[in-house]
Amino acid sequence: MQKLPRDPQNDYSREMAATRRAVVTAETGAALEHIGGFSFDPACLPGNIENFVGVAQVPLGMAGPMRVNGEHAQGDFYIPMATSEGTLVASYSRGMRLTREAGGITTTVIDDAMQRAPLFVFQDARAARDFGQWVEANFDTIKAKAEETTSSGKLRNIEQYALGKMRWLRFCYTTGDAAGQNMVSKATRHACLWMLDQNPPGLEHFTLAAQFDTDKKHSHVNSLHTRGKRVVAEITLPAALITDVMHTTAAALHKQRQFSNMGTMLSGSINNGAHFANGITAMFIACGQDVANVAESSAGFVYGEIKDNGDYYFSVTIPSLIVATYGGGTGLPTQRECLAVLGCVGKDKVYKLAELVAATVLCGELSLSAAIVSDQWVSSHDQLGRNRK
């Protein structure tokens, strides 16, 4: 196959995209008519993609309105969801109706941190321990060095984890409206180069990453200590409303919740909920998020309890929700339009987006759980989710 052409002076143009499509068509025989149909100027794409040829068009629906009583997201919202799974938008909309009629979802961001975890290897455990003590004593200087590379990233603390003669330092930052993975990598590297210049006694090896930051992978440490935003969505649902909207009861939902907890324990799942990833992925695609971060963001915890009056308290906690309203794909034309629908364009909007994602997840959990309990799960997919063409 021939090499894909590039133009070093103007690679992001309609002409270069068409040239590359023509090469692919000639080599494979595949017509790229729909891939080549897009409305924005490719000049906006540097930093987002290479070898641009066109677009992958994912259907976009709007769920809602969803009522949120957050600290940052307040009011009624339409939720853009990009998906090819039938019933998804309808199911989330049903959960949004239930929670809206119950008065709305309370959302709270309870922690915020993005990490890079370099590894320092020493000649023995004693030297590694002494280095850890030196890091604690010199934190203020390390923090200042790290922050020389960024105007919005702030190093809040460094966690330490020891194994044998190895010591991982988990640098934890706040990153403003950006997701921050690249930001914290650069800042941590800069700080570590200064640390290496101090010639730590007994140091044998250094690497900027050795899997402890678990970038784009779930880990138990993230569930305990947060990566990205740790956000909770919660609501208390009147028992009569559950029967009216969801055609089941609070008692039945709570009983199913206990069975689901047992299944989660038995299977070793990272989530005791039904489908966090569905809502998160659909919103991520629509709103220009790094979709690979669903690997971390879809971990979570569901909790429910029957109140003394028969009402049902229900919450979801997402411990490692990685979202952004600045950088990455958030400035692309259609993604920016979706962020505008949510009121999440502009400075200091990332917590609002995090609250809206968590509230959406809660609506999806309630709707799917109720569908399973009331035996509407299969019938709803038969009605809305089967593509018979």
UniProtKB/TrEMBL annotation:
Organism: Fluviicoccus keumensis
Keyword rRNA-binding in record: no
Name used for this protein in its record: hydroxymethylglutaryl-CoA reductase (NADPH)
Enzyme class: oxidoreductase
GO biological processes: coenzyme A metabolic process; isoprenoid biosynthetic process
EC number: 1.1.1.34
Gene3D superfamilies: 3-hydroxy-3-methylglutaryl-coenzyme A Reductase, Chain A, domain 2 (3.90.770.10), Hydroxymethylglutaryl-CoA reductase, class I/II, NAD/NADP-binding domain (3.30.70.420)
CDD domains: HMG-CoA_reductase_classI
Keywords on record: NADP, Oxidoreductase
Family: Belongs to the HMG-CoA reductase family.
Domain of life: Bacteria
InterPro entries: HMG_CoA_Rdtase, HMG_CoA_Rdtase_cat_sf, HMG_CoA_Rdtase_eu_arc, HMG_CoA_Rdtase_NAD(P)-bd_sf, HMG_CoA_Rdtase_sub-bd_dom_sf
GO molecular function: hydroxymethylglutaryl-CoA reductase (NADPH) activity
Pfam families xrefs: HMG-CoA_red (PF00368)
UniProt cross-references to PANTHER family, sorted A to Z: 3-HYDROXY-3-METHYLGLUTARYL-COENZYME A REDUCTASE (PTHR10572)
The UniProt record lists the keyword Disulfide bond: no
